[in-house]
Amino acid sequence: MNKWTEILTGLILVSVSIFVWGYSQNWGEFWNFGKPAWEFLKGGAVWFVLMIGILFILLGISELKE
């Protein structure tokens, strides 16, 4: 992957996951389905996307050094 594409993809994934995280805090009625398993799945998906975004950013930065 291109280094700039990795950084851009990482930044998009991190910003989207932070937006979803903040949106679910402010508008709890929309995201509140009342089942702990669904809450765990939503939280896991946010953390997964956040970590993938950070990985892309780190890969892009490491390729900038080369």
Q: What structural category characterises the helix and strand content?
A: mainly alpha
The number of strands is 0
Task: Supply the number of structural domains.
Answer: 1
Return Rg in Å: 15 Å
Helix content: over 70%
| N-to-C SSE string, H for helix and E for strand | HHH
Instruction: Show unreliable segments.
Output: none
Overall outline: elongated
On the 0 to 100 scale, the average pLDDT is 76
- The CA-CA distance between the termini, in Å, is 14 Å
Strand content: under 5%
How many helices in DSSP terms? 3
Strand count, sense and barrel status of the largest sheet are: none
Give a short overview.
This protein is mostly helical and 66 residues long. The chain has three helices and no strands. The radius of gyration is 15 Å and the shape is elongated.
Give the helix/strand layout.
Elements: H1 3-26, H2 28-31, H3 36-65
Helix pairs in contact: 1-3
